Amino acid sequence: MRVRTVLGDVDPAELGVCDAHDHLFLRTPRLPGQELDDPARAAAHLRTFADLGGRTIAHWTPYGLGRRERDLADLSAATGVHIIAATGLHQAVHYDPGVLARIRPGLAALFHRELTDGPAGMIKVAGGFHRLDEHARHTMTAAAEASGATGAPIGVHLEDGTAALDVLDLLCGSLGVPPDRVILSHLDRSPDPWIHRRAAEAGAYLCFEGPSRAHHATDWHLFDSLAALTEAGHTDRVLMGGDTTTPDAPGIPHLLRVLRPRVEAQLGRDAATAIFETNPARAFAIQR
């Protein structure tokens, strides 16, 4: 097995401490005036992350949203931090309709090409609020095809943490994606322990992020959710990321400066090692 980074394939054991969901660059009409588009700022965050012991970041910015592939390679080389880039598509609302019409017929081929010839080591797709619309189903179908051909993991944006089981029914049920190829994100935004357990029992990875103004009211539930999964024996399914989406967010270093010490204090060192090191090495490995 291997993990595909922007500088080439590495052994999963080399990932070290991982931020499993973040953004160095992001540009979307949904966040006007709040673009992440500054390489110097990204480099500063990566250096601080590395100083705190971080070794790898999964960069979930997909196709067409300003991921700046060439800058990612330069940043990784300059800072020594591994970067896993994403192909895939976000919700339709993040794109010009003309762009979607142009790429829609060959979506699976686009994902496959970026996973084999381009910079990507994962696929990012997105559901809607408590439902999967036609765009989500089409995009996930293309993602399943590309993942099946390459062994790459599929990261799923869950809108406000909802529709997790619908995603698993589609990807793992109808489309035959192995559950351990699926990473469900934003589950902290819908802290439903029954849903979390069902998703973990199915074999998917559960990624928790924070903090963010968009879901600040549920931040205090984060460690309740982590503790519940740990007590249920599902620590091996948990990942954590910072999910920096705007310039005024706490930034990538917050994950290791604030959240990891609290994980270790409340759940123990073994749980922290699993969540930040052991689990990401499995979740992001290309199983081919």
UniProtKB/TrEMBL annotation:
Zn(2+) 2 binds at residues 124, 157, 186. Gene3D superfamilies: Metal-dependent hydrolases. The modification N6-carboxylysine is found at residue 124. Binds 2 divalent metal cations per subunit. Zn(2+) 1 binds at residues 21, 23, 124, 243. InterPro entries: Metal_Hydrolase, Phosphotriesterase. SUPFAM superfamilies: Metallo-dependent hydrolases (SSF51556). One of its GO terms (molecular function) is zinc ion binding. Its cofactor is a divalent metal cation. Belongs to the metallo-dependent hydrolases superfamily. Phosphotriesterase family. This is Phosphotriesterase. The lineage of its organism: Bacteria, Bacillati, Actinomycetota, Actinomycetes, Streptosporangiales.
